[in-house]
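hey so u asked for the seq, here:
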Amino acid sequence: MAVLTLVTLRWHGHQKADQLDEAEARDDFDRLTATFQLSTLGLKETLKSWANWTELYDYVVDRSTSRFLEEELGAVELAEAGVDFLTLLDLSGHVIGMTEVPGVGGDLPATEEMIRQSVYFSAYVKSSQGASGCGAIKARTQVAMVCFGPIFNSQGQGHARGYIALGQWVNEDTIRRVSQVTGLMFDIVDVPTQARKEPPPATAAAMTSNMFRKDAVQVIEHDSQRELELRSPLTGLLGQDIAEIHMRWPRRLRQMVDTSSDITEMVVLTLIVLSGALLMLLLDRVVVRRLNLLRVELASIVDSRRWAGEVSIRGGDELAALARYTHELVLIVRQQVQELEDLSQTDALTGLPNRRAFDERLEHILAQYARQKLSAALILMDVDHFKKYNDTYGHPAGDEALKVIARCLRSALRRELDLPARLGGEEFGVLLQGVSAEQACAAAQHIRLAMQELALTHVANPPLMVMTMSLGVAVVTPQDTATTLYQRADDALYQAKTQGRNRVHLA
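ran it, structure tokens below
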């Protein structure tokens, strides 16, 4: 009966562990693909800056005399910006300029591929107003992330005069960075050329930035039963499968069940041999019930998905030691889960809360306002001429400047309810509770002056020649949602910029 009980426990544990392992593996795979797509944020920011570059706008309008592309966006400049290739298109989608950082042996695979696919870009921009987006392409055996969008002047106004596409190879460094962020091991595997189908030009308007399809994920069990492999096709801009992403995922819960079951079997069988009939009589009370309690408690902890709950420790025998070690293991995992959650809401560069934490607090503030009418305000701000600062002093200096700004915000905001955050790039935000419009503007002015008094040299920011900030303030109203409040604060920030920068504007 004892052996039968142990076999049943192991089988049931395997069944439960296999279900949970596969569900957790799919969740991790979704997180991996989401992080992979988020890796294009840097490329998007570069595209956003360059697409509103007045000199580039002028060059696209009249290319007859200017050598702007060769002098300002050559291979060296692309490499310094972390971009591997650039394509300029006119309003009809025809290629009018290409720059690529040469590969090994001087190869230019992206140039060949972008020219070959120009017919699809042409059909796409003709069928899409203000075409923009990010996706993947394949050049020879290499996969690249590509972001494209319309070119405007520095004010972002008027009509577009062309399109710009920036590309970045998905190489071993990209895979390593995503693996470090997610803690997951994966590879990009080539799809043979004969397995890909090229769409006709008439369907080019169906370009997609959805690189991963959840319904196409395959879960493969290896013979060792200690590892799962998840596979999903990587879809290119034209809708064809250009590669596959393979993620290896260790079956942790099954291994834990095996380890726990092995220890339990050893203890029980030893007790059976030594104690004989007496232990057979006491087995249900001494071993099985406690094992069932441990199993139920572990199942409850695992099912909570947040490692909440406790493992009971009774007695001083081997089972109690197992429960104690299990309890300590649960505490360690719970602490690591909490640390991971904290990291997911913290900006890695500045240490401030990130956009996710900021949005959660904003939703909470809006709910509190709806219930208690507790006044609140949102301040959006960004650094004046920060791109020029990066161009002048370099991106490492820009990163250090962002850290200084974060410290400035912390010192300028003393109230416990005030929440500063980095929202992306050089954009920061502050949430204030229990303040009027005048108090919110005063807080914004205090931040602006504190930043100005730091006197960080910025020769491209006249007339003060120091780093300054423009701020937009919006006070919560009964009609506000998170979207409308952001929009009003952003409009106020835009007004502060258009009125000369280094100032505060109230929505």
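The longest helix spans residues 252-303. Confidence is low (pLDDT under 50) at residues 200-205.
lmk if thats what u needed
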